[in-house]
Design a protein that fits this description.
Elements (H helix, E strand, L loop, with lengths): L2 E6 L28 H7 L9 E5 L4 H4 L7 E4 L6 H14 L4 E6 L3 E2 L2 H15 L4 E6 L10 E4 L5 E5 L4 H10 L3 E10 H11 L1 H8 L7 H4 L8 H6 L5 E6 L3 E2 L17 E11 L4 E13 L4 E5 L4 E5 L8 H8 L7
Parallel strand pairs: 1-2, 1-4, 2-3, 6-10, 12-13, 13-14
Antiparallel strand pairs: 4-9, 5-11, 6-9, 7-8, 7-9, 14-15
Helix pairs in contact: 3-6, 3-7, 6-7
């Protein structure tokens, strides 16, 4: 059985500004000192997916992504249209290269236990053989409102998907102990996915069928529906199964998420050459090659790059992406 992989590398990672930029997006950053997120994603496929490995990215990110995509082929989506068209394009191209099963992975997540991750993927590949679309559900560690949740049925099917819930609902889901986080990791047979796409998103399927006749992605792209795979297919399909994943997973979605993947220190966590602190706690620092001194400050994010310094409260971490709109409005887009 030929197992291919589709790795999504088209996002900008705006919540990791100023380290993440248009020309240097999050997936090509080394946030932990262990290699870029994309390179580590590809490394986790060894022994699980024989190939082809396809990295789907945007035209403006090619130069940044290419050096980190060792062992993979780059597939260019003409423009960002959410995850459904990107995954469908990658799956079509993987099938044309001989893949019978496809593993779909985001390129910018962290996995602490690679062995457990590989075991779950192998289990999902096995489950997919019956024609089911399979998603991996992460065992939650907190009542998170920023993720979608999955309710498993007794037979391994997905009973329902729960969109990003309000806090009270997230508290109940976490306390119940049955629900899983939706990590955006999928496994399916190429033919099963194509059949599901024709059933639920016929316009996108018809557009991509034209690739088999020699059309280019640019020619068919405007006819592809701009929506997520979850909404377009997974939430509508009758045969979707979930495999639990317990591997120290993190989506590394914003600066505070690095607390989950970096060693803790008395002053907080982060990467810097040296640290001195006086009465400083729970701070997050990224200043490679520099001494950082913190005095009497708590719960701050401090990020140093050659041309930008960011200082923010932890509680405002999600607002970092708003700064990009401010930069554009003030004629400072070159810093974005």
């Amino acid at each position: 059985m030929n197992v291919g992989a589709v790795i999504l590398a088209g996002g900008r990672g705006t919540r990791f500004w100023p380290l993440s930029r248009r020309a240097r997006p999050k997936q090509v950053l080394d946030l932990t000192g262990e290699g870029t997120l994309l390179a580590r994603t590809l490394a986790r496929l060894d022994g699980v997916a024989t190939g082809p490995w396809l990295v789907v990215t945007g035209p403006d990110m090619l130069d940044a992504v290419r050096p980190e995509a060792v062992g993979a082929e780059l597939i260019v989506e003409p423009s960002a249209r959410n995850t459904l068209p990107a995954i469908a394009l990658g799956t079509w191209e993987a099938g044309r290269r001989g893949a019978e099963v496809v593993v779909v992975l985001p390129s910018d997540h962290h996995v602490a236990n690679v062995t457990a991750f590989a075991h779950a993927l192998s289990q999902a590949i096995s489950v997919s053989q019956r024609g089911s679309l399979v998603t991996l559900g992460v065992r939650p560690t907190r009542a998170e409102t920023g993720f979608g949740w999955i309710e498993p049925a007794q037979d391994g099917r997905v009973a329902r998907f729960v969109e990003k819930p309000p806090q009270a609902v997230a508290d109940a889901l976490f306390a119940g102990g049955r629900h899983l986080w939706n990590a955006g990791i999928f496994v399916f047979r190429v033919d099963a996915f194509r059949a599901a796409l024709r059933l639920h998103c016929a316009g996108t399927a018809a557009a991509l069928d034209r690739l088999d006749g020699g059309a280019t992605a640019a020619e068919v792209w405007p006819s592809c529906e701009a929506t997520s795979l979850d909404y377009g297919v997974m939430e509508r399909h009758a045969d979707v199964r979930v495999v639990p994943l317990d591997c120290g997973w993190s989506d590394v979605g914003s600066w505070p998420a690095l607390d989950e993947v970096l060693p803790a220190a008395p002053w907080g966590a982060g990467l810097c050459k040296e640290m001195v602190e006086i009465d400083a706690r729970r701070n997050l620092v990224h200043a490679e090659g520099k001494l950082v001194a913190l005095v009497g400050v708590d719960d701050l994010i401090v990020v140093d790059t050659p041309d930008v310094i960011l200082v923010a409260r932890r509680s405002d971490a999600q607002r970092v992406r708003e700064l990009l709109e401010v930069l554009d409005a003030r004629g400072l887009a070159r810093y974005g």
